[in-house]
Write a structure and sequence with these properties.
Layout: E1 2-7, H1 11-21, E2 27-31, E3 43-44, E4 53-54, H2 55-67, E5 71-75, E6 79-85, E7 88-93, E8 98-106, E9 110-112, E10 128-129, H3 132-135, E11 143-147, H4 151-161, E12 166-170, H5 180-187, E13 192-195, E14 198-205, E15 210-217, E16 223-227, E17 230-233, E18 237-239, E19 269-271, H6 283-303
Parallel strand pairs: 1-2, 1-8, 2-5, 8-19, 10-17, 11-12, 11-17, 12-13
Antiparallel strand pairs: 3-4, 6-7, 7-8, 9-18, 14-15, 15-16
Helix pairs in contact: 1-2, 1-6, 4-5
This protein binds flavin-adenine dinucleotide.
Length: 307
């Protein structure tokens, strides 16, 4: 069996793999798609010490770094079940393969919930964005919309209002759901318009990039078009943890609950990155968390009795 088996090959999984392999222990990584969300990213300008890179380039660099170490990479492998079997764990893959390991690091990441309207796919990374920390500066001086009036949407709108020319916040419900203190801050900003009972129905573009957003006023049924350059979708980040329900503790949002060492509720199973309760879902944070979970797994191994 592996001493450390990592499930997920994004920045968290790659960092965990490099750290484990450098301890000289048998390390494997199984990933549905090596590179993770980084593969879907265009410009990356906040991975410290790398002023600018592109998603596929960073994903390649992650893989190269992992391959330079003694790590067994199992790409295009999706985990479906995790069980404890005596003194080790068994991870059952959808392919039917069963991988055994003394410790497991879960780094299956997350995905942004999409609006599911025409134009969204075409203009993703061409005006349709999901991460204000990542892409906010690209819209300096421009007009943007934020979709979603929960805490993330309102935080994004406040954040973006300091960078862009104008923000329109669009909420489907009749009122915002964000904390009162955030709503007060939002309403104090001169360059923010809030629309409630509004359903976004289409992303408009000129073939190259976003040029507008169509929404329906849910009270009157009328459709309106807002001219703008950017749309930040903030209607939820879904952790890839469905397969772990009932196996270990998940938060109400489905995130794997971890402590400060990356330990989950199942001793010997660690987790890192966007699939966990750790706040702020970012590449540099996921990588750091992966390193931490790996060191914790090593610590667990040297303390457990089996030689
Ligand atoms: P992920 O990158 O999500 O990787 C998860 C891995 O697990 C993948 O290999 C996946 O295939 C695998 N996996 C999932 N389920 C299973 C399963 N059941 N079995 C096996 N494998 C599985 N962050 C920044 O810091 N800067 C940016 O500029 C930036 N821009 C972004 C732009 C976009 C469009 C998106 C979507 C995200 C962006 N982010 C950015 C966020 C960043 O990509 C994530 O925070 C980061 O990738 C999280 O790393 P992770 O390793 O935790 O998870």
């Amino acid at each position: 069996p592996f001493e450390v088996l990592i499930v997920g090959g994004g920045p968290a999984g790659a960092a965990a793999a490099v750290y484990a392999a450098r301890k000289g222990i048998r390390t494997g990584v199984a990933a549905e798609r090596f590179g993770g969300q980084v593969m879907d990213t265009m410009g990356i300008e906040n991975f410290i010490s790398v002023p600018h890179t592109e998603g596929p380039k960073l994903a390649q660099a992650l893989e190269t770094h992992v391959r330079e170490n003694d790590v067994k990479i199992m790409n295009l492998q999706k985990a479906a079940e995790l069980n404890r079997e005596g003194d080790h764990f068994a991870v059952h893959m959808e392919s039917g393969a069963v991988l055994k390991a003394r410790t497991v690091i879960l780094s299956t990441g997350a995905r942004w919930r999409q609006m599911g309207v025409p134009g969204e796919d075409i203009y993703r990374n061409k005006g349709v964005a999901y991460c204000p920390h990542c892409d906010g500066p690209l819209f300096k001086g421009k007009r943007v919309a934020v979709i979603g009036g929960g805490n993330s949407g309102v935080e994004a709108a406040i954040d973006l209002a300091g960078i862009v020319k104008h923000v329109t916040l669009i909420e489907f419900d009749t009122k915002l759901r964000a904390d009162a203190v955030l709503q007060r801050k939002l309403h104090s900003l001169p360059n923010v318009t809030v629309l409630v009972s509004a359903r976004s129905t289409e992303v408009k573009g000129d073939g190259q990039k976003v040029s507008g957003l169509v929404y329906e006023n849910r009270v009157t049924g009328e459709h309106h078009t807002i001219e703008l350059e950017g749309i930040f979708v903030q209607i939820g980040l879904l952790p890839n943890t469905d397969w772990l329900k009932g196996t270990l503790d998940l938060s109400p949002r489905g995130e794997i609950v971890i402590d400060g060492h990356g330990q989950t509720s199942l001793p010997g199973v660690f987790a890192a990155g966007d699939c966990t309760t750790i706040p702020y879902k970012q590449i540099i944070i996921a990588a750091g968390e992966g390193a931490k979970a790996s060191l914790s797994a090593f610590d667990y191994l040297i303390r457990s009795s089996v030689p």
